Each structure stands twice: as structure tokens, then as C-alpha cells.
Amino acid sequence: MNPRSLAAVNKILAENPINPALSRFCKLDGLDAMANSSTWADDYRHTPEGKSTATWHFIDIPRGAPRGDIARYCAGPGGCITQALSAQIRILQDSAAAPVDRAKALRWVLHFAGEMQQPLHCTNNNDEGAHCFPVDFFGEQPATKDPAQGEYSPNLHGLWDYEIIQHEIGREPAADFAAAIDRKYHSQIAAWQNSPIAIDDWAWESHQIAEQTAYGLLPRRVMIETPAPGGTCADDNHAAARLLELHEKLDAAYESAAYPVIKEQLAKGGARLALILNHIWP
After folding, report:
1. CATH code at 203?
2. Among positive and negative, which fits the CA dihedral 4, 6, 7, 11?
3. Are 12 and 99 in contact, with CB atoms under 8 Å apart?
4. Which of 263, 198, 231, 236 is nearest to 58 (CA)?
5. Pair 250, 137: CB distance under 8 Å
């Protein structure tokens, strides 16, 4: 981030802090304002006020879909991540908007610019973005989390969210992990930051990575399903239960292929977030 952008972001967050009554999943102490704000969206969506924003966190592009107009996959009443990110950028750009609204928009942007780089937030195979895909991870067999909803853990989405990273870095401090990513992708980060803001392209890129790596490198092939309405892992003829029968076992071979992709996507998320914020405050 350039100095003007960094100063503007810190000022907005300092002057419009997160409601201290909000229950926070991430309870780490000593986080700076941006890091603390980056997970606000996940906590906010579990409140009565934020419940309607749940669909903002992903876009259900079906596996096998040909690249084209992404709007068709964002036509539901709640919207999706590409639409939400664009809308919140516009609010943040509006200097006449209420300060509290700009602060909320900033927290959305901090979250979504990174979240859409997670490939399974941009794909679906009637499995709720692989939330409904039970897997055995290094011998940890999937166990049901919510029998009524058909949810299991570990699941493929959770591996790409955090479990592979945790398994790889162990007790390494997050700051050291981030610094290593900065060093490794230094030249690419510069190139990504000199690219246009292309939100739809970023979503299609994540979708393709999901197909090539998240699903494509599974030991047991998963067929592409015909899109069907759903909302829980018990839908589409008990999707999670059917996928459980694959007995998908993921270990070092899968992790060694997925981990470099995850690190690169994290680097893109940071670079593209900075690109957006530097565009607002050049």
C-alpha cells in the first residue's frame, strides 16, 4: 500500500471501530486494525442484522461451466462475492457516504479481496463449495458435525481455508509466514499490483484453480454433477453422505501439490487488496 492509502485506511478504522459487543471468532490479542477488521465479515454474518449477507462470501460457478458472463451465477436475491466486492468499493470511494458506512465497506473489502482468492469460494459441485465433501486428512477420518444438516469435518473446503496451512507451518508465527510469502512472490506481487482491477477475472481464475487443483488432484475422481438447488449438505440426495462413500484420503501427496497454490493465492489476495486501496487513494 502507498503511504496515503495506508493512512486513510487506518484513520477510517480508528474513527469507526468494530462494535465491541460483536462476538468474534478470532480472539487473538495485539492485532493491528486491518488484521482485526479482516475477519469482521464472518462474525457479522452470524448476527440478525448481517444474516442477509451470507451469500456475499462466495459465488457458485458450477464445475464444468464454460467461461462467460459471470452475472448468471450471481442472480439470486442475496447477491454474491463479485457483486458485493464491487458494491462495497463504490461505497468506499464515495467521500460523501456516512463515515460508519465507509468503515463497514472497508471491512467488507478487506475480507472479500482475499476471500475470493480461495478457489472453493468460486466453485460448486452441489456440495456447497466443498463444505459438504468429507475427507480423511492424514488419517483423521471425517466425523459428522451436524447430522441434520449432513455436515462433516474434515472437509475439502476446510482444508483449503486453513487446515493445510496449519499442518504445514505448525507453530511458525503468522508474521513470519507472511514475510516468507512476500519474499517468495516479490516480483509477481509487483506485476499483480500493476494489473487492472478485474474482479470477474479473479473469480474465474479461482474457479479454474479449484477445477485443476482442489478437485483435479484428488486421488479419487469426483464426477461433475448437474447443478441442482440446495442449501445444506443433506440436499441433492444427501450430497455429503454420497461423497463420504468415496473414502477420499488426502495426505502428503495432495498437500504438497495444494500448498504452493494456496500460498500463491494468499499473495495474490494481498496484492489485489493493495491494488484496490491504492486505486481509491492514489
Report:
1. 1.10.575.10
2. positive
3. yes
4. 231
5. yes
Strand ranges (E), the chain: 136-137, 143-146, 151-153, 249-250
Domain that holds residue 12: 3-280
What pTM was computed for the model? 0.95
> In the chain, how many domains are there?
1
Identify the three-state secondary structure at position 180.
helix
Are the beta carbons of 60 and 80 closer than 8 angstroms? yes
Query: Cα 77 from chain centroid?
Result: 20
Show the cell assigned to 164.
493445510
- What does the pLDDT look like over 94-150, one tens digit per residue? 999 999 999 999 999 999 999 999 999 999 999 999 999 999 999 999 999 777 788
Query: Locate cell 462470501: which residue?
Result: 57
Do strands 249-250 and 136-137 pair parallel, antiparallel, or not at all (unpaired)? parallel
Q: Average pLDDT, stretch 194-201?
A: 96
Angle at alpha carbon of residue 127, lines to 44 and 115, rounded to 5°: 40
Cα(172)–Cα(195) distance, integer angstroms: 32
Q: Which residue has the cell 486491518?
A: 34
Q: Which three cell numbers stand for residue 115?
A: 476471500
3-15 and 99-115 helices, crossing angle to 10°: 120
CB proximity list for 245: less than 8 A, separation 6 or greater: none
CA–CA separation, 74 vs 83, rounded Å?
A: 7
Cα–Cα distance measured from residue 153 to residue 148, given in angstroms and rounded to the nearest whole number: 14
Is 167:138 a contact under the CB 8 Å cutoff?
yes
Here the cell at position 173 is: 508465527
First to last CA, the chain: 9
Q: Which amino acid is at 231?
A: G
**Cβ neighbours of residue 248 closer than 8 Å, sequence gap 6 or more:** 133, 134, 135, 136, 156, 218, 219, 220
